[in-house]
Amino acid sequence: MSKEAQTEARPRRVRLTFGVLFKTEGAVSEVEKWLENYCDGQWNLIVEEMDDDLIKKSLKITFELEDDKRLFINEYARA
Questions:
Q1: What pLDDT digit, counting tens, does each position of 1-52 carry?
Q2: Residue ranges of the alpha helices (H) in the chain?
Q3: Which residues contact 24 (CB under 8 A, 6 or more apart)?
Q4: Which value, in Å, is the radius of gyration of the alpha carbons in the chain?
Q5: Which of 3, 22, 71, 77 has a Cα at 20 to 30 A from 55?
Q6: Which positions ≥6 away from 67 have C-beta within 8 Å?
Q7: Domains of the chain
Q8: SS3 (DSSP) at 55
Q9: pTM
């Protein structure tokens, strides 16, 4: 099998190198919905912390594209 064919056969490994910590009292599903609708690259969201009442959340969001990170900060986090 040629090197080119081997490369095509393997799934593309995405590096999520651009991260942000985001605190919210909103629903995690709303953040995920926004990310799905507006990000061009891949992203990952992890709930880092949550208070006992399940209201205040600290989220770690990592992005494949730096532009997606900037867009999230400017259009969602600061809104």
A1: 445 555 566 677 889 999 999 999 999 999 999 999 999 999 999 999 999 9
A2: 3-9, 28-38, 66-71
A3: 31, 56, 57, 59
A4: 16
A5: 71
A6: 40, 41
A7: 3-77 (3.30.70)
A8: coil
A9: 0.81
C-alpha 37, offset from chain centre: 12
Cα–Cα separations (whole angstroms), residue 37 to 9, 15, 40, 43, 70? 29, 20, 9, 12, 15
Q: Sign of the C-alpha dihedral, residues 14, 47, 73, 40?
A: positive
pLDDT value at position 12?
74
pLDDT at 27: 96
